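Kindly review this protein for my students:
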Amino acid sequence: ALDIHDEMDEATIVDRVRFVNDFKFTRIGADLTLDMVAVRCVSKSPEQFCKTVSRVSKLTAKPIVLCSYSPEALEEALMAASANRPLIYAATKENWKEVGELALKYKCPVVVSSPGDLSTLKSLAKTLREGYGIDDIVLDPGTGTEGDSFAETLNNFAALRRAAIEVGDVTVGYPLLGIPAAVWLSPDEDENTTKIRESVLSSLLMTTYADLLVVHSSDIWV
């Protein structure tokens, strides 16, 4: 998924969504494409977030990820886009009840997020699965971008897959979400260095069992 946010200008939003729609790269005889658009609520305004989500929904037939920790902003956006069953990001230990109820109400899949805390991640997934009957779940164990947090991220992704496959723990057997775009929270002085970090992190997460990635860079080499 390529990200956009609700404080981007109209032209940038249109360009980035069209980039996702039109992207095709042929590698060893296979046509590779981008799969989704992740819309982030940066403005903290439910109305502005809804307006951006509505605009994106009209520009693409690709699936959408709604990114906000605010149940109010998520519901405003869901009223505009629920027919396409967007992925809701995210249910956390602070908002799981409200977001779980939104997932049920609008019949949408939901991300459970607990960065660096696999015990809480499993508990939240189990609560939504057993308490709410929600089975369309994606797990976000957090994406550290450097140093110990980066090593922990790779370990956590591998640990979740081992628990699901070797131990048979269905609670952690859901798809895994990584967010290489997180490198832009602490960008390097040289923009290309940040893009390299994002592409390397994406590659490592793919080889460590990530099923869905959210990226920011749209350069073809990335």
Helices lie at 10-22, 46-59, 71-81, 96-106, 118-132, 147-165, 191-206. The chain has a mean pLDDT of 97.
